[in-house]
Design goal:
- There is one protein chain.
- The chain is built from 8 helices and 8 strands, in the order E-H-E-E-H-H-H-H-E-E-H-E-E-E-H-H.
- By secondary structure, the protein is an alpha/beta fold.
- The protein folds into 2 domains: 121 residues, no CATH class; 113 residues, no CATH class.
- Helix 1 links the parallel strand 1 and strand 2.
- The radius of gyration is 22 Å and the shape is elongated.
């Protein structure tokens, strides 16, 4: 069994997977892990090759688009320790095509698909649960603390939906933010965040929305379990309608 190491980057992961799948007679017997730089660490280190990584990803998009999508969401999930599973999944995908997604009895396929689906579901959910608040300067701010690193695809989604407004989306957990201003999207880190003041109009709207949310529901049809399934409590912190509960 061959053991390989990479530098922990997405490009490094793709570079290593491409080389192993190309050079190993049976890549599903290989092990791939992030290098820890310890004194007695064993394994062959594969240096990152951004060009090779791009070529390999484009190959996935062309030949096995479902696997390329699965890889994308897998990366967003930031799940550590599953590099070997991902390597084996990609080898399976290139061998069997997009049919691989149905082979959930294979441990590597099951691990990767499960993690990928988690990120995909969270991105879809946040498109509906993200709440923008109008600030005094007229811009809008939305805060979130997702399990997965979904800021970039989420910002791209709202750049198409809210093109006429200036807005920010701030990932509190990772201290990164997306800014849409004058038709341009920027994403970067924020060392220190101070919540700006809301506009008076926003305060009035929030009060009205909270009152509406409390009174619109039919008491006899309340289903807390279903509500928490569709709107998990971990997201309530930034939902206007759930403040004070």
């Amino acid at each position: 069994m061959s053991r390989y190491l990479y530098d922990g980057t997405v490009e490094g992961l793709l570079s290593a997977a491409a080389r192993i799948i190309t050079e190993e007679k049976d890549p599903e017997t290989a092990v791939l892990e992030e290098r820890e730089n310890t004194l007695f660490e064993e394994g062959m280190f594969i240096a990152t090759d951004a060009a090779a990584a791009e070529v390999f990803f484009q190959r996935l998009r062309r030949d096995v688009p479902d696997a390329a999508s699965t890889f994308y969401y897998f990366v967003l999930a930031e799940k550590e320790g599953l590099e070997t599973s991902l390597l084996h999944y990609l080898a399976q995908a290139l061998r069997y095509g997009d049919r691989v997604k149905g082979n959930l009895t294979h441990p590597a396929v099951r691990n990767v698909v499960t993690v990928s689906r988690k990120a995909s579901r969270e991105l879809h959910r946040m498109k509906g649960l993200l709440r923008f608040e109008k600030l005094r300067d007229g811009a809008y701010l939305a805060r979130m603390e997702p399990d997965c690193n979904i800021l970039q695809p989420l910002a791209l989604h709202f750049s198409r939906r809210l093109r006429a407004e200036d807005w920010f989306i701030y990932d509190v957990r990772r201290r990164i933010a997306a800014r849409w201003h004058s038709g341009s999207l920027q994403i970067g880190s924020i060392e220190e965040f101070v919540a700006p003041a809301l506009s008076d109009e926003e305060k009035r709207i929030q009060t009205l929305w909270q009152a509406f949310f409390r009174t619109i529901a039919i008491a006899d049809r309340k289903n807390p379990g279903l509500q928490k399934s569709n709107m998990p409590m971990k997201y309530w912190k930034y939902l206007t309608e759930k403040q004070g509960e």
